[in-house]
Specification:
Blueprint (H helix, E strand, L loop, with lengths): L10 H12 L3 E2 L1 E7 L2 E7 L2 E5 L4 E7 L3 H9 L1 E6 L5 H8 L12 E3 L2 E3 L5 E13 L2 E13 L8 E3 L2 E3 L7
Antiparallel strand pairs: 1-11, 2-3, 2-6, 4-5, 5-10, 6-9, 7-8, 9-10, 11-12
GO molecular function, one term: oxidoreductase activity
Keywords: Oxidoreductase
Protein name: Flavin reductase family protein
């Protein structure tokens, strides 16, 4: 057996897995849905394109997330793919609590909340919810997709901090 940590169970295995995943750069998005007229949102880094035909995305939400309950009821959500300049909103929406929208500007877009200045916007309708450990993976059909204005660089999460990728010199 090698000297690397084997993933069995327990706190040590969980920490080893967290440390490994910290080395993987992920896109950062704020997923938002409406409950009545009130927006609910959370920062996610487990977001990806799933299919081109038909256009689909997947988003992973914590089972304890208030947003997950809202999305299950409404069947819809918006994905605000954050730009490099949006580390502050990413931090606000990453915390727990009902007051995440205090002081946060947003506007409706296709009856879903949209944050200004995002690098991209996606509206989606849930096709399936898959239980996956302590998260639920939402498989959703894209109903609208728009790039942000200008040449916005994406915000990423890497080594437990928000940042962005710098293009390599050619």
């Amino acid at each position: 057996m090698s000297t690397s940590a084997s993933l069995r169970s327990g706190a040590e295995a969980q920490q080893a897995f967290r440390d490994v995943m910290a080395a993987v750069a992920s896109p950062v998005a704020v997923v938002i849905a409406l409950d009545g007229g009130r927006p609910h949102g959370t920062t996610v880094s487990a977001f990806a394109s799933l299919s081109l035909t038909p256009p689909m995305v997947l988003v992973s939400l914590d089972e304890r997330s208030c947003l997950l309950a809202v999305v299950r009821r409404s069947g819809r959500f918006g994905v605000n793919v954050l730009g490099a300049h949006q580390a502050d909103p990413a931090s606000v929406f990453a915390r727990s609590g009902p007051d995440k929208f205090d002081g946060i500007e947003w506007s409706p877009s296709g009856e879903l909340p949209r944050l200004p200045g995002a690098a991209a916007w996606i509206a989606a309708e849930v096709d399936d919810c898959v239980d996956a450990g302590d998260h639920t993976v939402l498989l959703a059909h894209v109903t609208a997709a728009e790039p942000g204005e200008g040449s916005l660089r994406p915000l990423t999460y890497h080594r437990r901090s928000f940042g962005t990728r710098t293009p390599l010199a050619q």
